[in-house]
Amino acid sequence: MASLTKEQLKDQIETWKSLSKKYDVRLSNGKYLPSKFYHVLLGVSYSTLKKIISGEREIPKYTVELVSALNELSEKAFIKKLRSHIPEYTKLHLKA
């Protein structure tokens, strides 16, 4: 993947959300992973992800490369990766 548009990134996040539902990946509060979760997976702040999606900011090359690498994982390996990021998301966004 040499480049990625904001529309492609939005579509990719929706694809990942669907996959997480297929495997019943949920947060500690029992809810499915929201779109907001994926900033943690991509290693950027939520405000940065919003700026990328809105077109205010270019998609960094490392994000394009990470999306490509994540897409090369098997479904089970990808789900394992998602689950490994739930504690960080919980710490950042869910009240104890």
Structure description:
This protein has 96 residues and is an all-alpha fold. It has one domain (6-93). 65% of the residues lie in helices and 0% in strands. It contains 5 helices and no strands. The longest helix has 19 residues, at 75-93. The chain is globular, with a radius of gyration of 13 Å. It starts with 5 loop residues before the first helix and ends with a helix.
Key phrases:
96 residues, mainly alpha
Distance between the termini: 39 Å
Q: Could you report the average pLDDT, rounded to the nearest whole number?
A: 95
Largest sheet: none
The percent of residues in helical segments reads 55-70%
Topology diagram in text:
Elements: H1 6-22, H2 38-42, H3 46-54, H4 61-72, H5 75-93
Quick structural gist:
This protein is mostly helical. The protein has helices at 6-22, 38-42, 46-54, 61-72, 75-93.
